[in-house]
Amino acid sequence: MRKYKDLAPSLRTIMTPGPVEVDPRVLRAMATPILGQFDPEFTDIMNETMGMLREVFQTGNEYAFPIDGTSRSGIEAVMVSLIEPGDKVLVPIYGRFGHLLAEIAERCGAEVMTMEQEWGKVFDPGQVIALMKRERPDVVAMVHGETSTGRMQPLQEIGRACRELDALFIVDAVATIGGTDVRVDEWMIDAAIGGTQKCLSVPSGMAPITYNERAEAKIRRRKQVERGLRDPHVDLSCSGRTIRSNYFDLSQLQDYWGPRRLNHHTEATSMLYALREGLRLVLEEGLEQRFARHKLQEKALVAGLQAMGLLLFGDPDCKLPVVTCVQVPEGISGDSVMHMLLSEFSVEIASSFGPLKGKIWRIGTMGYSSNQRNVLHVLGALEAVLIRHRAKIDAGRAVQAALDVYMEAKGTVYEASAGVR
Q1: Cα–Cα dist 343/10, whole Å
Q2: pLDDT in tens, 40-90
Q3: Could you give the CA distance from residue 55 to residue 108 in angstroms, rounded to a whole number?
Q4: Is 175 in a helix, a strand, or coil?
Q5: Which of 130, 248, 325, 419 is the most buried (most CB within 10 A)?
Q6: C-alpha distances in angstroms, 38 versus 52, 334, 362, 415?
Q7: What is the pLDDT of residues 98-125, one digit of tens each?
Q8: What is the CA radius of gyration of the chain?
Q9: CA–CA dist 108, 90 (Å, integer)
Q10: Helix 71-82 to helix 250-257 angle, to the nearest 10 degrees?
Q11: For the segment 292-305, what is each residue's pLDDT rounded down to a tens digit?
């Protein structure tokens, strides 16, 4: 019989667009004792988590809770609950995850309309609004931060237009929540989906969502309580088309997270502890301070990459602050560079997908991974590996350029020692 060793994963500097390094305080929270899911102490933890999610999403919505599953589970739950067969759904696509929204909408039985932008750019909101006025969709689904291209779509004007045209606005904020501004109420977002494994620095396994009364009204029309749980005096028949998923049925999940505490599934206890602690740390740092930290790390990383002589990918006017895309130098194997970074420096960065596969590297500066030590380490390691690959770069400049950014931010100047020129 084979014998298995103790689990001892290597320590890595994870600078991908997700997952990222998990805050040790979150890992510690996951090791705390299990409680029953209807223990009043545990339901208090559920309520606290919902309250913190409202603050992070910057919303007054009643419904703000996590879906048990990866980020995609949150997207599926929102879309399958809000999209009925035959609904007209508009999906503006500017990267891989826009295509994902379109595919899920198709699987919901929607009449899907798409518009596509070249990867590396975003839409002028006027383009989207013009198509909305012509086609009058029931739902508009859009990605806020597209990690496949490192771009971020402005949403405020589109959200206002959705409200004026009575279309539900669904936003994938998986990559942006906790790292840059996501203003659910101000931008008139009807349903937003976040991710744990990116800027929140929590392991993958939960998808925070929130939705407003406009979305809840449609969910309520489709509500059907599980047969084994129905109260014939309370639970009326569905007046619309039943939500096709049981597990991702928001009408049942909101009863589970709401005062009724109607059993739906066994809660992922340790993951909820992790999410609660991750959210607590976000709020302890402060949203504005956290966003500023992410911008500083981005600025230092970009300064170092450009000082090295590398070219950034994409329109700089719509850059996603927490993901930086770098063009692979001509004649260099991007995969070989990534392999050497991991094997020799324990640094992980990412490639991309589709038309960008092998053409760019994506470097994340997200959550707990977004710090000066990591940025300086990845710059030094990348420079060393590129020299080994005989790339034409300006050696010795990257780390110094990043240090200039940090020193300027701190107002620190290191004077040369006496006798040193």
Answers
A1: 11
A2: 999 999 999 999 999 999 999 999 999 999 999 999 999 999 999 999 999
A3: 31
A4: coil
A5: 325
A6: 20, 50, 42, 61
A7: 999 999 999 999 999 999 999 999 999 9
A8: 23
A9: 13
A10: 110
A11: 999 999 999 999 99
